[in-house]
Write a sequence for this structure.
């Protein structure tokens, strides 16, 4: 339950922040050209090196796990969103401008529907990385959750416990990833047909 709470909060933050950054940088070409290489460089930093900073900022507990999970998912979601927004047909954006749509109306009515298949691929990747980040966060600075249980079992050489927790994580990740992959396939098929 502790792991699910932390993961759900981390995923919600990663999706909200990643989509916001991606839509903004994809829509504003100059900002995107400047910031995208910085995002890629930031993403290449091993996230484990940021954990001491997160501990100082958030302390031990669920907030540090949420932050650590979220930082794993934000950048991939943002990068996929930037790419998908840039690949939108220019005629759609020009039509929105001619109609005098505001930035919010443009994002909701034109950008999101046209970019949804690629954005969803980013969400699928973000889901996996956020789950990994949350479990890693629990392993390093938590006294509750699946990551903590896994670390404790490893320290005690309890193979049964290690295999049980690993199996639970694999089943959860596989089931949800399969569902997301099926939805992703439908969105891409619909986009290529339309």
């Amino acid at each position: 339950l502790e792991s699910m709470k932390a993961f759900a909060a981390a995923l919600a933050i990663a999706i909200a922040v990643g989509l916001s950054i991606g839509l903004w940088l994809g829509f504003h070409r100059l900002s995107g050209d400047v910031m995208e290489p910085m995002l890629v460089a930031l993403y290449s930093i091993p996230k484990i090196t940021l954990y001491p900073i997160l501990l100082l900022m958030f302390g031990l507990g669920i907030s540090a796990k949420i932050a650590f999970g979220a930082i794993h998912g934000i950048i991939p979601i943002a990068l996929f969103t930037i790419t998908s927004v840039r690949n939108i047909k220019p005629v759609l954006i020009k039509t929105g401008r001619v109609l005098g749509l505001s930035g919010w109306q443009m994002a909701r009515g034109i950008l999101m529907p046209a970019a949804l298949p690629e954005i969803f691929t980013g969400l699928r990747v973000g889901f996996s990385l956020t789950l990994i980040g949350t479990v890693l966060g629990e392993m390093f600075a938590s006294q509750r959750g699946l990551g903590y249980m896994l670390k404790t079992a490893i320290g005690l050489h309890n193979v049964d416990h290690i295999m049980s927790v690993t199996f639970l994580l694999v089943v959860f990740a596989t089931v949800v990833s399969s569902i997301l992959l099926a939805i992703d396939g439908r969105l891409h098929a619909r986009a290529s047909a339309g």
User: Anything to note?
Assistant: The CA atoms of residues 45 and 74 lie 14 Å apart. The chain has a mean pLDDT of 84. The chain is about 85% helix and 0% strand.
